[in-house]
């Protein structure tokens, strides 16, 4: 099942700021949150959740249960914005959420730190590079 669509990091931030029901869900790993940083949702009244899509042992079998534990209800029409490192895992998470009845579910293009550049490094695109609020976890 398809998800609602892709948003640039700025479009995602704008949606989160303009719709007080919208929830940001970061699906990276705990290690990524700790080492790289996280979106700072303080300006959103704390409307952010951190749920691993993939754990060190493989796919997170409790992902949808954890998503429901955030207060989302299937069929409520509450926007959910999924974010990962580069915008790949968040597509899968948005698809799973949509199939389960959550959303509309969106993917953030380029994720938190974008694709690997020609120099082998990340961080030249995405949420953090676009200057959106973030903090060290």
From TrEMBL:
Gene3D superfamilies in the record: Rhodanese-like domain
SUPFAM superfamilies: Rhodanese/Cell cycle control phosphatase (SSF52821)
Residues covered by the Rhodanese domain: 18-121
UniProt region (Disordered), positions on chain: 117-137
Pfam families per record: Rhodanese
InterPro entries registered for this protein in UniProt: Rhodanese-like_dom, Rhodanese-like_dom_sf
Name the UniProt record assigns to this protein: Rhodanese-like domain-containing protein
Organism name: Cellulomonas fulva
């Amino acid at each position: 099942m398809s998800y609602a669509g892709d948003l640039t990091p700025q479009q995602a931030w704008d949606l989160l700021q303009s719709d007080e029901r919208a929830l940001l869900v970061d699906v990276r790993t705990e290690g990524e949150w700790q080492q790289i940083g996280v979106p700072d949702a303080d300006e959103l009244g704390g409307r952010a959740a951190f749920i691993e899509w993939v754990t060190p042992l493989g796919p997170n079998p409790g992902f949808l249960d954890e998503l429901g534990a955030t207060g989302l209800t299937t069929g409520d029409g509450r926007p959910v914005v999924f974010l990962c490192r580069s915008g790949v895992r968040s597509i899968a998470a948005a698809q799973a959420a949509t199939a389960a009845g959550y959303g509309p579910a969106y993917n953030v293009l380029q994720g938190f730190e974008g694709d690997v550049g020609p120099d082998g490094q990340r961080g030249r695109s995405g949420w953090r590079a676009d200057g959106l609020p973030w903090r060290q976890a």
